[in-house]
Design a protein that fits this description.
19 strands, alpha+beta, Dna Ligase, domain 1, 8-stranded antiparallel beta sheet, Rossmann fold, 3 domains, about 25% strand, about 35% helix, D-amino Acid Aminotransferase, Chain A, domain 1, about 425 residues, 3-stranded antiparallel beta sheet, binds ligand MV4, 14 helices, globular
Length: about 425
């Protein structure tokens, strides 16, 4: 887009590739994230001294922090993302669910808002039927959840859930949902401009996860028909328009027995966005910047063409069996390439992976005309990828992409945990 960029970084990331490649770089503090990447004043100072126009929050850190988004705007910069009000609305899981439900999105049967007492919880559970799940409104992403299979378990866990939510998030409010036993995790990507134009860019199947960390994602989902995609996509777009939401967003669903149930909405760009780019040809970060700059979307749903199939493997510097982080120096590095192969990474030979942050070091995204073609390319690309000096999850991806259930697209949100246990 010809836009000059400023990278911000901690002292632990002095040698990071993005720092080398950006037009300018500003150090915003020491390794500890709370003193650098979460330091709002330091980031705003960096924007001020470099004369920045806009701030892209990336993913993680302050990307879903409503207070940061509003500070960015108050200081005269453009926040590349939704309004602070929408970030706040979706950050509170009860508010989010009530809002999307009233906008027409199907939700998991459960309580209408927070449950204040054990009695109210027991009554709600009788109505919806066991097993039920207690979720903290300030949780999300798997934090602050408890399953209860009967009234005894609910009596045991309800007040505990509230106390844990209070100490973990500073907010005790909990709500209840029917517990779905074997769903897939399917999320819809949407884009909305400032003028009420909304499109969906199809779904991503993110069911392959371990301890709430996604491992491998694919688009489209092997579990959906074109009619199901169109139906939930149109429902999602209509709701986003009704809510007045702008910029990129992802609506997360559980999908079980042919039905969609909303769980959460993400108001940031997601790690797995490249698989959507791969099958739509739409550059999501470019669209985020255009929308933030006040440009109209410029195309409609009928102009969005879905082509082929894409996989993303998250490559972490971790032991592929124990998942224990393995920071350290990369001694040798060779990336795969060729048609349909994309590697999003800042790694290079000689780079020292710092121990302070998330262990994801690369994303391998592979596209083909069909799922079978994409899978063949993915296996070939995984075989070509060389990362020496640290342990990585590449061996896990090699095993996973040979598994018959995976080949058949036959998996739910619990499948990978069992696969890992089986192969250890
Ligand atoms: C659920 C559920 C079953 N039933 N809600 C976990 C993360 C958070 N986003 C919501 N989560 C779940 N909510 C109901 N009513 C099961 C999960 C869940 C899960 C969801 C998506 C991907 C992986 C998961 C792993 C365990 C549990």
């Amino acid at each position: 887009m010809g836009i000059r960029t400023v990278a911000v970084h901690s002292t632990a990331d002095n040698d990071a590739m993005h720092v080398r490649l950006a037009d300018e770089a500003v150090c915003i503090g020491p390794p500890s994230a709370k003193d650098s990447y979460l330091n709002k004043a330091a980031i705003l100072s960096a924007a001020t001294i470099t004369g920045a126009d806009a701030i892209h929050p990336g993913y993680g850190f302050l990307s879903e922090n409503a207070d940061f988004a509003s500070m960015v705007e108050e200081h005269g910069f453009t926040f590349i993302g939704p309004s602070p009000d929408h970030i706040r609305m979706m950050g509170d899981k009860i508010t989010a669910k009530l809002a999307v439900k009233s906008a027409g999105i199907p939700c998991v049967p459960g309580s209408e808002g927070a449950l204040d007492t054990e009695e109210a919880a027991l009554e709600c559970a009788e109505q919806i039927g066991y097993p039920v799940l207690i979720k903290a409104t300030a949780g999300g992403g798997g934090k602050g959840m408890k399953v209860a299979r009967n009234a005894d378990e609910l009596r045991e866990s309800f007040n505990l859930a509230r106390n844990e939510a209070k100490s973990a998030f500073g907010n005790a409010d909990c709500y209840m949902e029917k517990y779905l036993g074997h769903p897939r995790h399917i999320e819809m990507q949407i884009l909305a401009d400032n003028y009420g134009n909304v499109v969906h860019l199809g779904e991503r199947d993110c069911s392959l996860q371990r301890r709430h960390q996604k491992v491998l994602e694919e688009a489209p989902s092997p579990a959906l028909t074109a009619a199901q995609r169109e139906s939930i996509g149109n429902i999602a777009s209509a709701a986003i328009k009704k809510l007045g939401y702008r910029n990129a967003g992802t609506i997360e669903f559980l999908f079980e027995n042919g039905e969609f149930f909303f769980i959460e909405m993400n108001t940031r760009l997601q790690v797995e966005h490249p698989i959507t780019e791969a099958i739509t040809g739409i550059d999501l970060v470019r669209e985020q910047i255009r929308i933030a700059a006040g440009a109209p979307l410029g195309y409609e749903q009928k102009d969005v063409k879905f082509q082929g199939h894409a996989f993303e493997c998250r490559v972490n510097a971790e032991d592929s069996q124990t998942f224990i982080p393995s920071p350290g120096r990369i001694t040798n590095y060779h990336t795969p390439g060729g048609l349909g192969v994309r590697v999003d990474s800042g790694m290079y030979a000689g780079y020292r992976i710092p121990p302070h942050y998330d262990s994801m070091i690369a994303k391998l995204i592979v596209t083909g005309n069909t799922r079978a073609e994409a899978l063949m390319r993915l296996r070939r690309a995984l075989g070509e990828y060389v990362i020496d000096g640290v342990k990585t999850t590449l061996p896990l991806h090699n095993r996973l992409t040979q598994d018959q259930d995976f080949v058949n697209g036959d998996y739910d949100i619990h499948w990978l945990e069992k696969f890992v246990a089986r192969s250890n």
